Amino acid sequence: MDVMKFLYYVINQLLEKLREKWSKVEKQPYPAMYSSTYGGIILDPALMVIPIDDHMVHRGHGVFDTVIILNGHMYCSSSLMTREGS
């Protein structure tokens, strides 16, 4: 079996197992997800994966930052922008 056929087989087996797992869930918790891997909106829960090297996963990017809007402007935006490197 050549490498491409093997990879195709393994990927199909993985997707089949993921879809089987999600088919047993009564209410799907996530209706959709934007995937930077696929470059669009994903509706299939089996494809809703995040690469392990994504900065959100191992550095917490985008998780802890919040912005307060006061009178139509970001409050203390200079400290946020300095920290973000903008």
What's the helix and strand layout?
Blueprint: H1 3-23, E1 33-35, E2 40-42, H2 55-59, E3 69-70, E4 73-74, H3 77-84
Antiparallel strand pairs: 1-2, 3-4
Which structural class is indicated by helix and strand composition?
alpha+beta
How much helical structure, as a percent, in the residues? Answer: 25-40%
Q: Which stretches are low in confidence, meaning pLDDT under 50 for 5 or more residues running?
A: none
Distance between the termini: 50 Å
Major β-sheet annotation = 2 strands, antiparallel
C-alpha geometry: elongated
Give the DSSP E fraction (strand runs of 2 or more residues). 5-15%
Instruction: Report the C-alpha radius of gyration, rounded.
Output: 19 Å
User: What is the β-strand count?
Assistant: 4
**Whole-number total of structural domains:** 2
Annotation field: number of helices = 3
Strands of the biggest beta sheet: in what spatial order? 1-2
